[in-house]
Amino acid sequence: MKKDIIATKEFVYLRISRTIEQQILENVLRTGDKLPSLRTICREYGVSQNTALSAYYHLESKMLIEARPQSGYYVRYSRTRLPSMPMKTSPSNASNYSESELLVREVYSNLGQDGHMALSLGTPANDLLPIAKLNKSLVQATRDLAGSGVNSDKVEGNERLRRQIARWSFAMECNFSYKDIITTSGCLNALSYCMMAVTEKGDTVAMESPVSFGMLQLAQALGVKVLELPTHPETGVDLNAFEDALKSGEVKASLLISNFSNPLGCCMPDENKKAAVELSEKFNIPLIENDLNGDVYFGQRRPKSCKTYDRSGIVLWCGSVSKTLAPGYRVGWVVPGRFKETVLRMKLFLTIATTSITQEVIANFLETGRYENHLRKLRHTLHGNMLQFSRTISDHFPEDTMASRPQGGFVLWVELPKGINTLSIYEKANQEQISYAPGRIFSLQNQYNNCLRLNYGLVWNKELEQRLIQLGHLLKNS
Fold this sequence. Notes:
The strands form 5 sheets. Strands 4-12-11-10-9-5-6 form a 7-stranded mixed beta sheet, with helices on both faces. Strands 13-14-17-16 form a 4-stranded antiparallel beta sheet. A two-stranded antiparallel sheet has the order 1-2. Helix content is 42%, strand content 13%. By secondary structure, the chain is an alpha/beta fold. The longest helix has 27 residues, at 370-396. Helix 8 links the parallel strand 5 (204-208) and strand 6.
């Protein structure tokens, strides 16, 4: 009798899971759609919560659905319709700064135009940001700060903000004091101080490939050379190539985006981060870490950073809220390790101090828990958006299109069949008020011409879906 009861339970949860699976495969339930709650499943099917959970666990094991913390279960995607993952990159060594700069200018000359669907950026839309709460905090900051915020702050930056950043760093298992932190005008500003502190004109810096064009332009402005390293779209920079670069004696520093890189969206596994730090210590070569997107993760917890494994001060860890909370506030920071005094001197010479009032606002958001509340909502939205983009790309882009599978961040890397040149199609897409970032601008070399980067940090709606479909048709007919 007991065996019969168990068999019946197994049949019920399998029947429920098969029904939902069929709806997913027939596109009744689409990627990113929220599934009924466990309570609803229990009520509609007349089953216990354990049976409902078993049904969802079975669907999870088939990679058809996924659980999101404090949100519920969502359709992930159909395995048969998921774009393949791009291969590891293989950059060469020939570089062309002038061509890269001209391409970036061309691509970004049309931003801000009315009616333009800006899929080219790597930041969230204003509708996803807590602007009203930021405005209230701004008013409060004018009341709290001496001189209503018009006075210059310390060179190190707002102490309240630095204390909150130090407290926040425990999530990635770092243990540093507010005294270790220097605030900056955004993450790129932090990276520039670090580059100036550890390199000189003519030096070579190792970076991932493809890599954010902002970092390439920074290297150009400082007169340093870039050695582009092979990178996997899931696990990040190739450690063998990284070791060879450090061992060569040519490289004076490395600059890595450890978590949810731009544009690939890759996240270095913990063991790779640890190995990268150990190699940097072995060859005594500074590692500048851009951890701008680390807070925008889709999993259960924030990923660690390279700084987590730094015991000698070789890692210069940079962060910001420019992508996650307030792009225009330009609030960033750096923990420069053993290079603190040099970085502090760079800031004193070039900036003297950062804007006091915006730092106070961000400190308040961190202190009161508003930042974490905002991030929880943002992560859920972006995760759903990423899945919706993946589904639409699979359905409407050219056959054999490949796409990255980021587990955080804002951007998706798309690799099209070799015959498609995304730079030559860019102007045609622009005429139809669709902008994307052609793959060519993420390298100093003549490569990634059949690739593009898309920003899924937008509000998913019918218009956005139609623009993506429209872009897919343009690429198909090119």
